[in-house]
Specification:
Layout (H helix, E strand, L loop, with lengths): L9 H17 L4 H8 L3 H17 L19 H18 L3 H26 L7
Helix pairs in contact: 1-2, 1-3, 1-4, 4-5
């Protein structure tokens, strides 16, 4: 029997992020969007995501930046966020269990909700997000 552990270290974060983005890249809806934007910058994007989730989940403050701004003008909608969230939750459920795993799912849900709300706002208005 293979017992799943919680998300407790940077190694766990890297495993989560790497497998999640492998699944994103293979997804028919999200893969083309991510691949067209990131092109040959996948490595730097993954490094940024390691730092982001390390900061959020482990309270090890290694990320700086504004995570929403790069997403503000993307032509995406509810279906994209639902797909992202399904892949996120499935990846966590496949790999981990415990308090931090549940927190990661909760935070992913709240982030998707906030990003969608803000993207819809910018799609309907001529405003520009503040850095």
């Amino acid at each position: 029997m293979n017992t799943k552990l919680d998300i407790l270290s940077l190694t766990d974060i890297k495993t989560l992020v790497d497998i999640f983005y492998e699944r994103i890249r293979a997804n028919d809806l999200l893969g083309p969007i991510f691949n067209s934007i990131l092109n040959d910058r996948w490595s730097s994007h993954l490094e940024k995501m390691y730092r982001f989730w390390q900061t959020v989940l482990l309270q090890e403050h290694t990320y700086t930046g504004s995570p929403f701004v790069p997403h503000a003008k993307l032509p995406i909608d509810q279906l994209h966020f639902d797909t992202w969230l399904t892949i996120w939750n499935d990846t966590i459920n496949d790999l981990f269990e415990g308090e931090k795993a549940e927190e990661a799912k909760w935070r992913g849900d709240k982030m998707a909700e906030m990003f969608l709300y803000k993207i819809m706002y910018y799609q309907k208005n001529s405003a520009t997000p503040i850095l």
